[in-house]
Amino acid sequence: MLPLSLLTAAQNKPMLVELKNGETLNGLLINCDNFMNITLREVYQTNPDGDRFWKLKECYIRGSTIKYLRVPDNLLDAVKDEQNRTRDANRSSRGGHTGPGRGAPRGGNFLHTI
Amino acid sequence: MDSLIPFTTSGALVDCVDRKMLVILRDGRKLHGVLRSYDQFANLVLEDTYERIYHNEHFAEEPIGVFVVRGENVVLLGEIDLDQEDELSLSQVDFKALQDIHKHDTASKKIHEEAKSQILYEQKGFCKEGGEGDGY
What we know:
Radius of gyration of chain A: 19 Å
CATH topology of the domain at 10-93 in chain B: SH3 type barrels
Distance between the termini of chain B: 33 Å
CATH architecture of chain A: Roll
Number of strands of chain A: 5
Largest sheet of chain B: 6 strands, mixed
Shape of chain A: elongated
Strand order of the largest sheet of chain A: 4-3-2-1-5
CATH class of chain A: Mainly Beta
Largest sheet of chain A: 5 strands, antiparallel
CATH class of the domain at 10-93 in chain B: Mainly Beta
Radius of gyration of chain B: 18 Å
Number of helices of chain A: 3
CATH topology of chain A: SH3 type barrels
Structural class of chain A: alpha+beta
Distance between the termini of chain A: 10 Å
Helix content of chain A: 25-40%
Largest interface: A-B, 21 and 21 residues
Number of helices of chain B: 2
Order of helices and strands of chain A: HEEEEEHH
Oligomer: heterodimer
C-alpha cells in the first residue's frame, strides 16, 4: 500500500494536515491526486503558533506545501478490509469461480491477498 | 538483487519496512514509528508513531498514531536497535511538562543561530543562507 494509495483510499476520513510553514488544517478528505494536492471539507485551520483558529467550509491544498498528514489510527486496517471486500465482490460477480484456474499456481488465492 | 537496485535511492528502504524507525524532519521533529510503506519520493507511512522531545538528560514521548510524511521533509531515516533502546541512559518524563521547556529551547536556539549567521554575513564574508532558513 503506497503512501498515496493510502491517501486515495482515505476519502471521507478525518485527517490533520500540517503545512511546511507550520499551519495545520483539520478536516474531512474529499479528494486527492498523484501530486498529493488535496481538498478538505469542514476545515479547522490553525496558525503555526497554534493560538489562532479559522473555520473553512472547504479548502484546496497544493501538495508541494504539505509537511505531513496525520490520519486515523484504524485507517491501515480499514483500507485493507475495504480492499478485501472489493476483491471478494469482484470474484463472486464473475460467477463464483473461486478455485485456482487452469494453469494457475496452487495456492493462487494466497497470491491475491498480497 | 542488491546489485540491481541503486542503493542510494529510496529502493534502499525495502529492508526497513515493518521495522521501527527514527525519522527526523526538516523542522527538527523526531518521530519514532514502524515503517509500513514508502514510494519513490520517500513519502513514508509510519504506524504507532510517537514524537520524542529531549532536554538535557530527559526525554518525553507523545503518541501520534498513523503518519503520512511527505518525502521532501525527511532529513534522516534510521533503524532503531530495539536491544540498545532499552539501555537508554536518559530518563522519561511527562510530555506536557517537557513541552514548554522544549519550545523555549527551540526558540532560543533559533535566535542564537540567527545571530550567528548575521555575524558570519557581516564580519566574515559568508553569504546569506538562501531558501527557507532551516539550514537545509
